[in-house]
Amino acid sequence: MTTLATIIGVLAGLAALLIMAIHVYAYSFIWLSACQLRRELRHHQRTLSRTEAQQRITRHEGIILVDAPSIGWNVTRIWWSPETDFVPPSKQTDQDSLASPADIENHRRFIDMTKGTASLVEGFVFSQRTVKYLKKHFGLDDCPFIFTGGVVLEQKTRTRK
Question: From CA 150, how far away is CA 131, in angstroms rounded?
């Protein structure tokens, strides 16, 4: 009986370690992707320090945007854009689509590497801390949200067909 309990305990411990390892790997990949994105955007003059973004928001210049670059990993990015023509999400949703038409349009206008106007302020914020981050650094309770992970996955799916 003691041997069986030991085996079960070891297997449960290994399963827990495996789950932790997967999370460390995934979050490391997302963080490194954010670092790479910042480098790429810096070449196009599309990065902004948090201090500069705070000053611009205080002067009522532009808007702060939040986007979710992945599906299910609870990470967001913070952007500042001089453009304020954000398309609000529709009340109706398409059940066959991961991204709404508003998300697709807003991604194109603000986030897209070739056409977007937004500057990256912060490349990695856990979603659970996003509201506190916005309140602490920009005095905002809410801001526009873009589901980039869904938009990118939809684009990849369309190009495969």
Answer: 21
Burial of residue 110, with CB atoms counted within 10 A of its CB: 0-12 exposed, 13-18 middle, 19 or more buried: buried
The predicted structure's pLDDT at residue 161: 65
Distance in angstroms (rounded) separating the CA atoms of residues 147 and 128:
16
119-126 and 75-81: which strand pairing? Answer: antiparallel
Its domain, for residue 142, covers: 2-160
- Residue 83: CB atoms within 10 Å: 13
How far apart are the C-alpha atoms of 30 and 115, rounded to whole Å? 23
| Rg of the chain, C-alpha, whole Å | 19
Do 90 and 106 touch, CB atoms closer than 8 A? no
The SS3 call for residue 123 is strand
pTM: 0.86
* Number of domains present in the structure of the chain: 1
